[in-house]
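User: Could you check the structure of this?
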Amino acid sequence: VQLVESGGGLVQVGGSLRLSCEASGDIRSFNSVEWHRQAPGKQRELVATLTPVGTPKFADSVKGRFTISRDVAKNTVYLQMNSLKPEDTAVYYCHAELWLNGVDYWGKGTLVTVSS
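Assistant: Sure, the predicted structure tokens are below.
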């Protein structure tokens, strides 16, 4: 299984970006898909979690600004980021865990830079 992130880039404060995480296999085989981020000099943090049942979960720092969704036909999970702030600048990683055996996978990340 491979996870490939895309959609990062440079955006001004208050702008929006939509990140994509495309899986090489059926995305329904995952019991959870998450977006994490790591800012320079900081630890990686969990930003958003999507499971097949239940409501998505978000870090307090992004609640009300970020949404997470999936397109099963495209095997893709999206992170819609609105009202971006300089502190959202980070490399964003996709992480997923298989139903079958709990094995998890990471993408290589996509860089988001929010300029003021």
